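User: For a benchmark we're assembling, each entry needs the component sequences followed by a predicted structure for the full assembly. Here are entry 17's components. Please fill in the structure.
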Amino acid sequence: LQKLGKADETRDAAFEELVANFTKQMNEGGKLQKDLKSYMAAVKAMHDASRRLQDCLADMYEPDWFGKEELDALVEDTDTLWLSYHQNLTDKSLLCMDTYLAQFPEIKSRIAKRERKLVDFDSARHHFASLQKGKKKDEAKIAKAEEDLGRAQKIFEELNVELQDELPTLWDSRVGVYVSTFQSLAGHQESFHKEMSKLSQNLNDIMTKLEEQRQINEEAN
Amino acid sequence: LQKLGKADETRDAAFEELVANFTKQMNEGGKLQKDLKSYMAAVKAMHDASRRLQDCLADMYEPDWFGKEELDALVEDTDTLWLSYHQNLTDKSLLCMDTYLAQFPEIKSRIAKRERKLVDFDSARHHFASLQKGKKKDEAKIAKAEEDLGRAQKIFEELNVELQDELPTLWDSRVGVYVSTFQSLAGHQESFHKEMSKLSQNLNDIMTKLEEQRQINEEAN
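Assistant: Structure for entry 17:
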């Protein structure tokens, strides 16, 4: 291929940086989505284990023990809190990531297309240049090659300009996406843990009542 | 075997109830220990998943973004909180259950021994009665059988009295064990979730700062 001019080389190095950022951004997003999904699977598993442990207490709890009704209500409230935490994460953080990541495959294929069109453009330029330098000049062929070169350049430039415009915007958008994903996560976490702390306090209170009953019974015997 | 008298029958029915309670109590305890262990495995798994998710954010977080140091500190604090929650559950609830459950095998084997000694006692009583009812009375044999019967009764009664004394006490002790297991669990849960809620608020604050920086940069461009 013909050697590109100084300007072309600079422009291409700048574009390579855009592509490097794009790849980094896509990988980061994929990793984040994967880690979010694992976190949610762990939330689900801890919900199940917590439910089983509370059910175990509720099953052992005899009907005449103080706080039986409160305990049954607490088991349901705890279950509801876990469910809504999981649902909120799915509806907000995970869907936000899905929408964000859905943009990448189309842009990735346009980057690959630009690469192919650059090869076409270079090859048309090379062809035109070699015809011009040739000893027997066929003007018709040269005109045809120039026309082809113009077309190849136009196709490449259009894709190039589009991507040079879009990639930096996409790159900048990651900050907002991370902010909204983790802000939403942190917000749901904050209220989940706050409510869970209150429910734990309730469980503590029920146990205190049961202990009081136990001591009354002990003194009576 | 010889039919037991009315008093023996009543006494045995009462003992069967003690044994039924013992078995129920042992199964409940085993189930609780199992559910506690599963809960702790789930705590461990959610800790790991939460750590990976926060590490993912920390890895993406560029050094010149607002709040980088606060975020790194937050990741460590969150990790420490999870670790100490898990450790507290191990040290308190789980060890308390282990100690409680360790009593059961020895008592279970004494219940089985009492059962065998009851068979011996009944068989000695049967032997003695049939000698007494026999046509040709061998006084030496009868005296020997009476002595054996007395020994068999003594061995049985000792085990029986011990167990009749211990089983109701053990049965009553379950309430205190459930109280202390779940009170300790609820106490650790309460403070864990409370602290976790604060750390989530911190993460929210860091994200708000990052968003402010993003908006400043956007306006500058």
